[in-house]
Amino acid sequence: MSNNYASTINADPSEIQKFSELAHRWWDANSEFKPLHEINPLRLEWINNIAPLAGKTVIDVGCGGGILAESMAKKKAKVTGIDLSEKALKVADLHGLESGVEVRYEKIAAEEMAEREAGQYDVVTCMEMLEHVPDPASIIRACKKLVKPGGHVFFSTINRNPKAYLFAVIGAEYLLQMLPKGTHDYQKFITPAELTQDIRNAGLQVNSMKGMSYTPLTQIYSLNQDTSVNYMVACTNPI
């Protein structure tokens, strides 16, 4: 990667550092990443129901330690995972060796990967990442460039409103201590209207949107139509 490119990369160094410091705990289902482990089966089935993964080429943008990437590979997809945290990718690689699940991991920015492997993927996933980068629209454009015509793109992020602040920041980070304090910056949360506008501006078609809720009493996550806090969007790249 050239120095010039590195200086303009669409990433917040403090965000990369934050997740790098936690990388060794990525696969500990009782660690700060417990919520990711618990929502992963819901995300996986939602994706697989819309775009059956078996035999598909898939790229997970912002793959972190590989929780979603590995689970998609277990569905017989040919999976690539990209991230800018070297430590998280090392953890992903090591876990892949332990589990025997094959995923190709690479430290590369989404925009650079889109230049190199444009139109190569049947499915692109970008989950819980957009709220951590300076320019989410640039990531969305990169996802559009990576996917084949007729292919599927999936995003998930957090809505920006008082309820989302209460649940995702105050509740999850401070009261329930499900996440490390400072995991989320409320100002970077993205409303469904903003996200769908960026998706359409990139040339993708929005097909469906799902909310994801957490019930503290039962400690259970569920998919529903309530997009007021966490939500996911399924898109297609027009042919």
Outline the structure in words:
- The chain has helices at residues 3-7, 13-21, 34-50, 67-74, 86-99, 110-116, 136-146, 162-175, 192-201, and strands at residues 57-61, 78-83, 104-107, 121-127, 147-158, 205-215, 220-224, 230-236.
- With 239 residues, the protein is an alpha/beta fold.
- The chain is built from nine helices and eight strands.
- An eight-stranded mixed sheet has the order 3-2-1-4-5-8-6-7.
- 41% of the residues are buried.
- The longest helix is centred in the first third of the chain and has 17 residues, at 34-50.
- It starts with a helix and ends with a strand.
- It catalyses: a 3-demethylubiquinol + S-adenosyl-L-methionine = a ubiquinol + S-adenosyl-L-homocysteine + H(+); a 3-(all-trans-polyprenyl)benzene-1,2-diol + S-adenosyl-L-methionine = a 2-methoxy-6-(all-trans-polyprenyl)phenol + S-adenosyl-L-homocysteine + H(+).
- S-adenosyl-L-methionine binds at residues 43, 62, 83, 127.
- O-methyltransferase that catalyzes the 2 O-methylation steps in the ubiquinone biosynthetic pathway.
